[in-house]
Every structure is written in structure tokens, then in C-alpha cells.
Amino acid sequence: MPMAIWLIRAGSHGEYEQKFITENRVYVTWERLGVDISKLFDRDALFQEMSKLYDDAKPKQLLNWASQVWHFCHDINKGDLVVLPLKTQPAIQIGEITGDYHFQPGGPDPFFHWRPVKWIGEAIPRSNFGQDLRYTFGAFLTICRVQRNNADARITAMRAAGWKAETLPAAATGAVAPGGETPESADLEELARDQVTQLIAARFKGHALARLVEAILKAQGYTTYRSPEMAEKRLVFQPVNYDKPENAHFLKDYKLPCPSLVVVRRKAGKDAKWKLLDKTWEHVENPFKFNEYVEGEVEEILRETK
Question: 121: left (phi > 0), else alpha (psi -120 to 50), else beta?
Fold first, then answer.
């Protein structure tokens, strides 16, 4: 049986991401759905069960939900790949299904239904995938099969190449839900964030990014100093474009999952200590929390130099 690729979301706001990743499982996250799907005769039986639980939902919506949940139980197979779009950072976690469907009657709610998964390496920057695949990953479904635009072959090729960025031209399209259903909408917030990130990456390379960050900080009332280049100073801001071959080593040196902030203390021209600010993307839409977080981390490493 050929390998399939499935998109599975960890909550509408990514609230279950850490549970999925740390437990090496993917879950169905519909609340109160404490019924063993493997014991139901067909999809219609699941539709009837969900109709009782969610009596305020419209029939079309219930049919859509039943299809997603039914295929989680019956169509996903060992060896299939899972695409988990992350909300806490602009990245995609890829995994491989390693076992069968499990029903866990004790939950806790909503974690009644799960499959084991082996996550493949670190999260991959969304920008590494073609625009059409990113659009597919933004489909507003919790569970769906990724099929269009030769997605299985392309993702397999990316895996073989160490998840390096695709070089194919973008082809705008969407996702395909299991059983031929078509998603009615996409996660516009996620797609817009992708486009903004892509625009910044294209127009603000090298020191232009430093000027952009400085302008944003000044607009928020901060007094800034922008270093023209790395120098022997107490604190400098140094943008690095790791897409350039000479900078590619930073991805490994600092374990970068995506464009990130790293605080580095240098001594005698070498890194004495560094810290990846892995919560940067959690706070990027809240300027107060973002500034508080970054300032706190910078102040901590500066105190160690005194």
C-alpha cells in the first residue's frame, strides 16, 4: 500500500502541540467524543453518535466532522506521514505513523482516540515548503489527507534531501479532505503570517533587517543603538541570513528550527555561552510580552559578564 500524507492539527490554537510531540502521539481532539470508533459499523453510525453529542451543529458540519474522525480510525496506516502545522512557531513538524488506532475510554477529555507516531527530526521552517503546500497546510480542517500537487512525492524528496527548501515554482491550490470532501475555508491568519514572513525575508536581508527591527523598536518608544557591524561592544545586534552558504552552519550551531533570536556571549572572539530564545514566536503578536521576554533574556546574559 503506497504511503499517504495526513494533516493533523493539535487544537485550533496549537494548544495541544507539546502533548502531541512529547507523547509521540497524534490525537482526535473533539471534546466529549468518548465512543470507540472501531466498534461502530460505518460512518453513518459515527454521524448518529456525533449528532447526539453536538445537537447544535448543522448536518453538513456533522458530516464533515464524522468523515475526519472516521478516517483517523480506518484510513491512516502504519508508515503514513503526519504533517503537524505548529502555531507556536512558523514551522511544520513531520512524523511517521508507527501503529494502529487506539481508544482510551478514560481520556482525559478530549484525548480518547490516538495513534503512535515517531517525529522525524526537528520542526521544519514553513518557508522551506512551496507556496502551494503551505496553502494546503493552511486548510481549515483538523484532519485531512494531503494529495494535490504531487505532495507525497515532493515531501518524500524533501525528506531524502534533509528537508532543504523546495525550489519548485509555487502553484496555488488547497487540501483534499479524506473521501473527496473539499475544505470550505482556509486558516487565513496562518496564510497571512506566511506571506508577511516571506515578504520580510525577501525585502529585508542582511543589515536591512537590523534597520527594520530598529524602526519597529523606535516606533514603540525605545532608544536604540544599531551596530554597523559586529564589534567588541557590550551589546550588539547582528542579523544573519542563514540561507547564504557561508552562514548555513548557524542552523546547526544554534539548533535553529526557523528564523530565531539567539543571545550569544562571546569571549576572545569565540562563543562562551549562547541561548536560543525559543519563545520568541509565541509573543511576536504581543509587543509588550515580546519586549519583556527578550529584554529579560538579554539582561540575564549581560549580568553574567559583570
Answer: left
